[in-house]
TrEMBL record:
Name the record gives this protein: (wild Malaysian banana) hypothetical protein
TM ranges: 18-39
Organism: Musa acuminata subsp. malaccensis
Subcellular localization, as worded in the UniProt entry: Golgi apparatus membrane
Lipid bilayer topology: Single-pass type II membrane protein
One Gene Ontology molecular-function label: pentosyltransferase activity
PANTHER family with a match to the protein in the record: GLYCOSYLTRANSFERASE (PTHR20961), GLYCOSYLTRANSFERASE FAMILY 61 PROTEIN (PTHR20961:SF81)
InterPro entries noted in UniProt: Glyco_transf_61_cat, Glycosyltransferase_61
UniProt keywords, alphabetically: Glycoprotein, Glycosyltransferase, Membrane, Transferase, Transmembrane, Transmembrane helix
Pathway: Glycan metabolism
GO CC aspect terms: Golgi membrane
Domain of life from the UniProt record: Eukaryota
Length: 464
């Protein structure tokens, strides 16, 4: 008589087989997904990984990665108030309500605890650098570290100045002075942080320079009704009922509505900028059969780095297509240049800080970013493409061909500098390649190839 199998042994064996098979199948699926992701974004990943280690070139102080390892701050929270968050990879942030006393010259912020707080919670301190380039050692080396401490009323310094409005403490160190970083690191982040107070807030700014304050006074005065305090030089103890230390960073040149008070967007920021600078146009020209006025195209002229080598030809071609061409350098007086930008319907420029002027364009404008050699397609989209779309404008990205780079005048056709950027970084070194691609490369547009881009821009202006 055949021996019967014990069901109690067979079932676990089947179950183990099923589980093992399922795990193997899941692993293969994950591997395929991961491989697809890496292949899809290989150029961007390569650029990011190398960009993080690069020194800041003199011509373009913006070589800093958002994906570098975070600075190793403590992941702690202050008891009740104040509250500090060290978990974000781009910024540390504290917000406190109650009796807060600030002594800028010693970089100290004191949260004065009530007498019934557990004594062990007193005398605690947390340190942070209030600038949204956390993880970028080069940028943060230019930022003063601030200490947030809890003290008893008995030990707290006496108030010299009392304020009934909140305060925001932040630094304009880092890469300030570079137009792109001025906006992405500070002006957009201070907009999202301070708008909730409708001007009833005071700024205490470390590393502030008089020229920087003067350059952006139109924006700063629209955000605060009060004197801006030089944090590093302030000798008195100022007392506030509500203090924010640091600025929350969302993404490059953009705002995440889910992370901002009242769901603010880049459309709101554009509206705010136009109002601050008293810009006339909220919308571009609307082309139609009865439209006699020509659309204006602004060509951002750079004198030295990543300049257009055939500006006259670009102007002539654009005018033949029906544009009114305006050539201007972005280093003019900011207020004057903002009005020039706002008067235009299309903006054309090579990848660089000058494209930050897109914030002055009217809604529905067209931004054409020309991407030079160097594997810059991904970072070009992140820096300016996303911002353009977020502001309800049209974005076009034109990647030059080999023949359109002036580097062909310096290198033979087979050199990796021209044919294989990844190999060029390995062969010549990161420092030299950044100098070549950013500082020593010009662009000579092939108008036979580029004309279709201009025609497409005209079509976009005809759309609703």
């Amino acid at each position: 008589m055949a021996k019967q199998k014990n069901p109690s042994r067979v079932e676990p064996q089947k179950l183990r087989s099923v589980l093992l098979g399922g795990c193997f199948l899941l692993s293969m699926i994950l591997l395929v997904v991961y491989t697809s992701y890496v292949v899809s974004f290989s150029n961007l990943s390569f650029w990011r990984s190398n960009r993080a280690a690069a020194p800041v070139p003199k011509a373009e102080a913006k070589i800093a990665s958002t994906h570098q390892a975070d600075v190793s701050y403590q992941k702690e929270k202050l008891p009740s108030n104040p509250f500090c968050d060290f978990s974000n990879r781009r910024n540390d942030y504290c917000e406190m309500e109650g009796d807060i006393r600030i002594h800028g010259n010693s970089s100290s912020i004191f949260f004065v605890a009530s007498s019934n707080v557990n004594a062990t919670k007193l005398q605690e301190s947390w340190k942070l650098k209030p600038h949204p380039r956390k993880g970028d050692a080069r940028a943060m080396a230019r930022v003063t570290e601030v200490s947030v401490k809890t003290l008893s009323t008995r030990d707290a310094p006496k108030c010299a100045v009392h304020s009934s409005v909140p305060a925001i403490v932040f630094s304009t160190g880092g890469y300030m002075g570079n137009f792109f970083h001025d906006f992405t690191d500070i002006l957009i982040t201070i907009f999202t942080t301070s708008q909730q107070f409708n001007g009833e807030v005071q700024f205490l700014i470390s590393e502030i320079l008089p020229w920087w304050n003067e350059k952006y006074q139109k924006i700063l005065k629209s955000l605060t009704n009060y004197e801006i305090i030089d944090f590093n030089q302030d000798q008195v103890v100022r007392c506030y009922p509500h203090v924010i230390v640091g600025l929350k960073f969302h993404k490059e040149m953009s705002i995440d509505p889910s992370k901002s008070p009242y769901g603010l967007t880049m459309v709101d920021f554009g509206r705010f900028i136009r109002k601050s600078f008293a810009l006339e146009r909220d919308m571009t020209i609307k082309l139609g059969p009865d439209q006699g006025k020509k659309p204006r195209i602004l060509i951002i002229a750079r004198k030295w780095t990543r300049r257009f080598a055939n500006v006259d030809e670009i102007v002539r071609n654009a005018e033949e297509m029906g544009f009114e061409a305006v050539v201007a350098e972005a280093k003019l007086n900011l207020i004057e240049f903002a009005h020039i930008v706002n008067s235009c319907d299309v903006m054309l420029g090579v990848h660089g800080a000058g494209l930050t002027n897109l914030v002055f364009l009217p809604t529905n404008a067209v931004v054409i970013q020309v991407v030079p050699l160097g594997g810059l397609e991904g970072i070009s989209w992140i820096d300016f493409g996303l911002a353009t779309i977020s502001m309800k404008m049209h974005y076009m990205q034109y990647t030059i061909s080999l023949d359109e780079s002036t580097l062909t005048e310096q290198f033979a056709r087979g050199d990796p500098v021209l044919s294989d950027q990844k190999e060029a970084y390995k062969k010549h070194g990161w420092d030299r390649m950044i100098d070549l691609y950013f500082a020593k490369q010009g662009v000579k547009l092939d108008m036979g190839r580029f004309s279709s881009t201009l025609l497409h821009a005209l079509e976009l202006l005809r759309q609703e």
